[in-house]
UniProtKB/TrEMBL annotation, chain A:
<feature type="transmembrane region" description="Helical">
    <location>
        <begin position="58"/>
        <end position="75"/>
    </location>
</feature>
<keyword id="KW-1133">Transmembrane helix</keyword>
<keyword id="KW-0472">Membrane</keyword>
<dbReference type="Pfam" id="PF06166">
    <property type="entry name" value="DUF979"/>
</dbReference>
<feature type="transmembrane region" description="Helical">
    <location>
        <begin position="293"/>
        <end position="316"/>
    </location>
</feature>
<feature type="transmembrane region" description="Helical">
    <location>
        <begin position="253"/>
        <end position="273"/>
    </location>
</feature>
<protein>
    <submittedName>
        <fullName>Putative membrane protein</fullName>
    </submittedName>
</protein>
<feature type="transmembrane region" description="Helical">
    <location>
        <begin position="6"/>
        <end position="23"/>
    </location>
</feature>
<feature type="transmembrane region" description="Helical">
    <location>
        <begin position="208"/>
        <end position="241"/>
    </location>
</feature>
From TrEMBL, chain B:
<feature type="transmembrane region" description="Helical">
    <location>
        <begin position="166"/>
        <end position="186"/>
    </location>
</feature>
<feature type="transmembrane region" description="Helical">
    <location>
        <begin position="57"/>
        <end position="76"/>
    </location>
</feature>
<keyword id="KW-0472">Membrane</keyword>
<dbReference type="Pfam" id="PF06149">
    <property type="entry name" value="DUF969"/>
</dbReference>
<keyword id="KW-1133">Transmembrane helix</keyword>
<dbReference type="InterPro" id="IPR010374">
    <property type="entry name" value="DUF969"/>
</dbReference>
<keyword id="KW-0812">Transmembrane</keyword>
<protein>
    <submittedName>
        <fullName>Putative membrane protein</fullName>
    </submittedName>
</protein>
<feature type="transmembrane region" description="Helical">
    <location>
        <begin position="192"/>
        <end position="213"/>
    </location>
</feature>
Length: 317, 223
């Protein structure tokens, strides 16, 4: 059976490749910082289950220290020039989109085929994880296609991947850190405290008001945390699971999915979501650093209201 | 009730407000929250590490980077630019509406890293939106130009946020699934992803209507 473990090995090997190539990149003044950072990510993916909870904790502290104290920089792997890319684009035309489509098509149709054909009972893939396994398969298929068609240098996938991961930098690890922060908040009872505070303002038995407090709470807590990923476990523990799902019998798929989207409405309205709201203001040289947020409020607020309506109508139909 | 752990939230807010490195802010807030809840220091580090390890699936998404990078190497972005340029008879609003739809659909099929604020908005979308606005409105004053640029960035965010959750192999869907699983509620990613569709349609209608209103304002105030 192909399990998630295979994917962790694949991703871990990739990060190990990034680490080794980073260490050898003399154009990057912080090359050993980068090598250590991506090396720790490789270790986490390859051996996370072997090094124990405390080992993982020290690993995370290492990642945070490397990123937080400025040891991670940006490598300059050799790639093609703008002129060469224009030239390739003209030469290959729209066929260039085909390898890009291999990954989503493999993941999407593979999942549908697997779930709606006898293949699903074969036990080939780990249960409920087939999409991720197929995503990995799609990546490998796309790479093979590109190699057969375009014949790039052998190390090109790792170097180009390193170019992109370096442009994202530590931000690539932040969602996972925020998810872990959410777990710690839950362990410390933050969800219970907020749940207690919010529950005290909800009239007993009012499903609509409970749904409204859940949606608005997702948005507000996302604005505070800068990320719906951190807000979701807290609001799920506070209101989503105990009240909406267990007490009122709401559909967990609707409450989970639309609750997260209510959080995204908060993401549109907060400077804490720096990547989306402050970075583009700088990129576009806006005078007002909150200009992008101001442009988004009038979309976010009505959408938040409608998300609450969807939860109320669809989860309790 | 022990309310001290709420200080962790305050640390996050303060850290971001002071523009400290988010990795440090998150780590310090996590450690402080655990300690304030009365856990011992080693236990806090171990809990944080276990949670990080349990959420490794979020890191799996990065395995697409080598493929995206290779396609960039062979001119995918330039190809996408050519394709969008060939649709250029539009006004600012129509152009951004088209981009909104493009962004939502590509995000919905997992191609969210093929566009973005740095890759497409700055070099392509914002300049095209500005050029289209000048066609309607004549020379733009600073306030109008800022508004068009801000709306270009906003359109990218709205399209990404309310498209990507339809693609079931994305971090947020995984997180919802993993969180609910801790309560014994087991859902397949596809069951969650379908419920992203109504909001995606509403986001398109609301933001699209605002883009059409922007067009009208530009036309009225022009020349």
């Amino acid at each position: 059976m192909i399990t998630l473990q295979w994917l962790y090995v694949l991703a871990g090997a990739m990060f190990a490749g990034f680490a080794i190539l980073s260490a050898a990149d003399r154009t990057n003044g912080k090359r050993f910082g980068n090598a250590a950072f991506w090396g720790l990510m490789a270790l986490s993916l390859l051996a996370g289950d072997l090094i124990g909870d405390l080992g993982n904790g020290l690993l995370v502290l290492g990642l945070a220290a490397l990123a937080g104290f400025g040891f991670v920089g940006r490598g300059n792997p050799a790639t093609t020039s703008f002129a060469e890319r224009e030239d390739y684009s003209a030469r290959f035309g729209n066929r260039l989109f085909l390898p890009a489509l291999i990954i989503p098509v493999t993941a999407l149709f593979g999942t549908l085929l697997y779930n709606y054909s006898p293949l699903g009972s074969s036990g080939l893939f780990e249960a409920k994880r087939e999409t991720y396994v197929l995503l990995g398969l799609g990546v490998l298929l796309a790479l093979v296609t590109i190699f057969v068609w375009l014949r790039p240098p052998a190390l090109a996938p790792l170097q180009e991947g390193r170019r992109l991961i370096d442009s994202i930098g530590w931000a690539a690890v932040l969602p996972q850190m925020l998810a872990a922060l959410g777990v710690l908040f839950a362990a410390a009872g933050v969800g219970d405290i907020i749940g207690g505070l919010t529950r005290s303002v909800i009239p007993e038995g009012s499903v609509f008001l409970t749904a409204a407090v859940f949606g608005i709470g997702m948005a507000l807590f996302t604005m505070v945390m800068g990320n719906a990923f951190a807000a979701f476990p807290v609001m799920a523990a506070a209101i989503g699971v105990p009240l909406l799902i267990q007490d009122y019998g709401g559909d967990p798929a609707v409450i989970g999915a639309v609750g997260m989207l209510a959080g995204f409405c908060g993401t549109l309205m907060t400077p804490m979501a720096a990547n989306f709201n402050l970075v583009p203001a700088a990129l576009l040289e806006l005078k007002d650093q909150y200009g992008v947020i101001k442009a988004q409020v009038a979309t976010a607020l009505p959408l938040l209201l409608l998300n609450i309506v969807i939860i109320f109508v669809a989860a309790f139909r | 009730m022990n309310y001290w752990p709420l200080l962790g939230i305050l640390l996050v807010v303060a850290g971001f407000a002071l523009r400290l490195n988010p990795m440090l802010v998150v780590t310090v807030a996590a450690l402080a929250t655990g300690l304030l809840a009365g856990l011992d220091p080693l236990e806090v580090v171990a809990t944080f590490g276990k949670a990080f390890n349990d959420n490794r699936i979020i890191a799996i998404v990065w395995i697409v980077l080598p493929v995206i990078g290779m396609l960039e190497r062979f001119g995918l972005q330039q190809r996408a630019a050519t394709l969008i340029r060939s649709m250029q008879k539009a006004t600012t609003g129509k152009l951004l509406l088209l981009y909104l739809g493009y962004r939502q659909i590509t995000a919905a099929i997992g191609l969210h890293s093929t566009a973005g604020q740095a890759q497409t908005v700055r070099p392509l979308v914002a300049p095209m939106a500005l050029a289209a606005a000048e066609k309607e409105h004549g020379e733009l004053d600073e306030k109008t130009a800022e508004e068009v640029k801000a709306m270009s960035a906003a359109t990218d965010n709205v399209g990404l946020f309310f498209g990507e959750d339809i693609f079931f192999a994305i971090g947020s869907i995984v997180l919802i699934q993993a969180t609910l699983a801790t309560y014994g509620i087991n859902l397949a990613p596809l069951q969650l992803a379908v419920w992203a569709i109504p909001t995606a349609i509403l986001a398109f209608l609301i933001h699209g209507a605002r883009l059409m209103l922007l067009d009208r304002r530009l036309r009225r105030s022009g020349k």
